[in-house]
C-alpha cells in the first residue's frame, strides 16, 4: 500500500484524481530507484514530490490534443515540477504506470471487500447458532423433503462464504503485481532492479515476466472471484425471497416503520433488498465475462482491454462492496417465524418422515422393496387426503406386522434429524460449537 495515503472507501479508490495521484507515486518511486542506481541526482524524487501538483482539468485539456492520458498527465506536471521533470518516466512505458497503479487500486478495493466478507461471516455465525435448533422443513425441487434446522441452512452459507474469503485472499496475491519492464517487457532501458524497488515500495510484487502489460488472466481471476461471491449472495437472497412468499412466510426482510411496499397496494411487504441483490449479481457476472475476453490481446499488447477495465473494475468492486453491506444487514435483521416453520413442517401430515419409516422397517428385517411399497402406498393415500401418514401406517398390515405403534411414533420425531448437528457445527466452526459469543440460543418448541 502507498505509504503517503490512508486507504479510502470504495468509491474514493476509483476517483480520477486519486488515480493520477497513484500514477505520480509510481513515477516518484521510479525516480527514487533511479537515484539509487545513480541515474538521477540524489534528492530528485523529493524535489518532484514537493513541487508536483495534480490538476485534473489541466490533464483533460491536454488530453484533448494528445489523445493519450499518460502523456497528458506527464505534460501537466511540467507546469509545476521544473527541470527535474526530465527524470520522470525514463525508460518506462505507459502500461508500466497504468498497470502498476491499477494493481494498487485493485488490492485496496479487495481489502475493503475482504473486510465486508469478514463482517458477513460474523453475522452468519451468530445467526446460525441462534437458530441451530429451530426445526423447519427441508425442500428439494421446491417440494418438502425432510426436517432440517434453520441454523444448518445458515451454517451452510457460512461455510460457502468462508470459501470465498479464502479464494479472495488468493486472488489478492495474484493481482498485487506490478511491472516496469518497458515497452516490450525486456527491461531494455531500465533493469529489473528498478521494477523490484518500485513494486516493493507500493506493497506489490514484481511480475516475474511480462510483455507490455501484466497478463490479463490475473484480472479475469479477480473478476471471476467477485462474480462467484455475487452468485452466492444471489443464492442467499433467492432463498430469502422464497421464504418470504405469502404461502411460506417462514422468514422475511425487516420492514421498518414508515416503509412502503407498493404505490398501489398498502398491504405489501416485498423482499426488495433480496430482489435488488439478485439483479446486481447479474451485473457482476456479466463483468467477469468481459474480463475473460480481455485475456487475449494481440502480440505484446493492444488497447482493447483498457476501455473495458475502466468500467468493470470500479463497477464490480463498488457493487460487491454494496452487496456485502446489504446482505449482511439483511441476515442480521432477518425476521424469523418459528411458528410458521412448525406449521409448514406439519403441512403434509407427516409425509416428510417417510424415509425414517422405511428404514425402521428395513432395520426390523423387512425387505426394502416391500417396505418402500408399503410406505409409498400409505404416503400416496395421505397425499389424497386419507389421513396423516402415522395414522395410516399404524393400520397397514405389513407395517404393523414389523413395527409397534410406539416404534412407528418414534419415526415421526423431528429431533431425530438434528442429532448430528453438533458434529456438523464442529466441522464448520471448530471445537466447542454449542455456544457462540453473544448469541442466545433459540429453544426448540415442538
Write down the domain tally: 3
Uncertain stretches: 1-7, 435-446
Radius of gyration: 30 Å
* Termini gap: 55 Å
- Assembly classification: single chain
Fraction of residues in helix: 55-70%
Examine the secondary-structure arrangement and name the CATH architecture of the largest domain. Up-down Bundle
Strand order of the largest sheet: 1-2
Structural topology:
Layout (H helix, E strand, L loop, with lengths): L9 H4 L2 H21 L7 H8 L4 H11 L2 H13 L12 H37 L4 E6 L2 E7 H26 L1 E2 L13 H10 L3 E2 L10 H27 L7 E2 L19 H22 L10 H29 L2 E2 L1 H8 L8 H10 L4 H16 L5 H7 L1 H6 L2 H6 L10 H9 L17
Parallel strand pairs: 3-4
Antiparallel strand pairs: 1-2, 5-6
Helix pairs in contact: 2-3, 2-6, 2-8, 4-5, 6-7, 6-11, 7-9, 9-10, 9-11, 10-11, 13-14
Amino acid at each position: 500500500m502507498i505509504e503517503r495515503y490512508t486507504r479510502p472507501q470504495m468509491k474514493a479508490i476509483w476517483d480520477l484524481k486519486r488515480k493520477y495521484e497513484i500514477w505520480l507515486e509510481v513515477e516518484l518511486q521510479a525516480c527514487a530507484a533511479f537515484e539509487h542506481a545513480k541515474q538521477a541526482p540524489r534528492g530528485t524524487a523529493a524535489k518532484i514530490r514537493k513541487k508536483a501538483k495534480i490538476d485534473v482539468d489541466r490533464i483533460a485539456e491536454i488530453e484533448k490534443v494528445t489523445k493519450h492520458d499518460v502523456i497528458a498527465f506527464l505534460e501537466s506536471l511540467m507546469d509545476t515540477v521544473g527541470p527535474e521533470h526530465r527524470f520522470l518516466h525514463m525508460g518506462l512505458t505507459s502500461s508500466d504506470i497504468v498497470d502498476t497503479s491499477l494493481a494498487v487500486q485493485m488490492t485496496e478495493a479487495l481489502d475493503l471487500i475482504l473486510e465486508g466478507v469478514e463482517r458477513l461471516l460474523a453475522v452468519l455465525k451468530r445467526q446460525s447458532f441462534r437458530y441451530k435448533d429451530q426445526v423447519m422443513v427441508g425442500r428439494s425441487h421446491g417440494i418438502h423433503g425432510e426436517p432440517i434446522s434453520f441454523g444448518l441452512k445458515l451454517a451452510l452459507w457460512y461455510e460457502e462464504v468462508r470459501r470465498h474469503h479464502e479464494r479472495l485472499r488468493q486472488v489478492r496475491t495474484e493481482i498485487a503485481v506490478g511491472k516496469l519492464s518497458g515497452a516490450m517487457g525486456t527491461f531494455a532501458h531500465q533493469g529489473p532492479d528498478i521494477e523490484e524497488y518500485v513494486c516493493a515500495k507500493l506493497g506489490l510484487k514484481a511480475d516475474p515476466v511480462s510483455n507490455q502489460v501484466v497478463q490479463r488472466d490475473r484480472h479475469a481471476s479477480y473478476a471471476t472471484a467477485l462474480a462467484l461471491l455475487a452468485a452466492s449472495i444471489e443464492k442467499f437472497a433467492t432463498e430469502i425471497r422464497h421464504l418470504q412468499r405469502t404461502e411460506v412466510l417462514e422468514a422475511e426482510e425487516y420492514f421498518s416503520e414508515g416503509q412502503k411496499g407498493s404505490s398501489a397496494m398498502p398491504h405489501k411487504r416485498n423482499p426488495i433488498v433480496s430482489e435488488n441483490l439478485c439483479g446486481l449479481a447479474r451485473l457482476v457476472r456479466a463483468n467477469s465475462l468481459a474480463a475473460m475476453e480481455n485475456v487475449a490481446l494481440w502480440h505484446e499488447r493492444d488497447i482493447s482491454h483498457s476501455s473495458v477495465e475502466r468500467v468493470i473494475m470500479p463497477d464490480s468492486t463498488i457493487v460487491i462492496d454494496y452487496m456485502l453491506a446489504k446482505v449482511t444487514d439483511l441476515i442480521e435483521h432477518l425476521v424469523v417465524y418459528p411458528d410458521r416453520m412448525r406449521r409448514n413442517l406439519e403441512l403434509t401430515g407427516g409425509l416428510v418422515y417417510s424415509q425414517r419409516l422405511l428404514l425402521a422397517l428395513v432395520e426390523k428385517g423387512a425387505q426394502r422393496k416391500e417396505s418402500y411399497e408399503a410406505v409409498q402406498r400409505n404416503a400416496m393415500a395421505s397425499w389424497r387426503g386419507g389421513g396423516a401418514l402415522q395414522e395410516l401406517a399404524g393400520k397397514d398390515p405389513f407395517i404393523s406386522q414389523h413395527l409397534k405403534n410406539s416404534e412407528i411414533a418414534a419415526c415421526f420425531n423431528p429431533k431425530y434429524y438434528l442429532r448430528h448437528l453438533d458434529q456438523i457445527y464442529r466441522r464448520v466452526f471448530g471445537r466447542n460449537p454449542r455456544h457462540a459469543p453473544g448469541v442466545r440460543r433459540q429453544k426448540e418448541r415442538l
